[in-house]
Every structure is written in C-alpha cells, then in structure tokens.
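pinned: reference chain
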Amino acid sequence: MESDLHLLSRYHRHGDVVAFQALVTAHAAMVHATAHRVARDSVLAQDVAQETFLALARSSGAAIRSVGAWLHHVALQKAQNVVRAEVRREKYESGSF
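pinned: its structure tokens
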C-alpha cells in the first residue's frame, strides 16, 4: 500500500487520476464527517467535501506533511465558512441585518 504523500506526489507530478481517486476513497468518509459535524447538513457537507478535494487537487502538495491532517483542517475551515455564510444569508433574507 502506497503512502498518501506518495499518491499525492503521483497525482501532482504525473496527473495520475487513479492515485487521486485512492486518496479520495481513503479520506472521503472523514472529510464528510468533519464537514457534517460543523454544518449539520448532509448536502452542505457534501459540497464542502467536494471543495476540500478540489483544493487538494489544486494545491502544490509541497507543504503537506500529512494528507489526512491537511484534509481535516481544510474541511473544518470550509465548513465553518459555509455555516457563517448561511447565517449571514438567513439574516439578510429575514431583514434583520
């Protein structure tokens, strides 16, 4: 079994989509659970998970020491941002801004 960092390196250096899919498969449940714990909504959590893996794909990978920890951190931040945006939207729509 290859390490996450090796899989990420294969994806970034060679565009190896199989390697990236292996990362998604290995970490999707954790990323979704992290997002769901914050957002408390399955649809928003799925959106956050997709954005998190898109951020991984776009990253250079150079500063990542642990793929799992990086994904958890990014999912947490993105979920918090989504919740803040939802609160702002609800306030705006109710006219209590």
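why pinned: The chain has one domain: 4-94. The chain has four helices and no strands.
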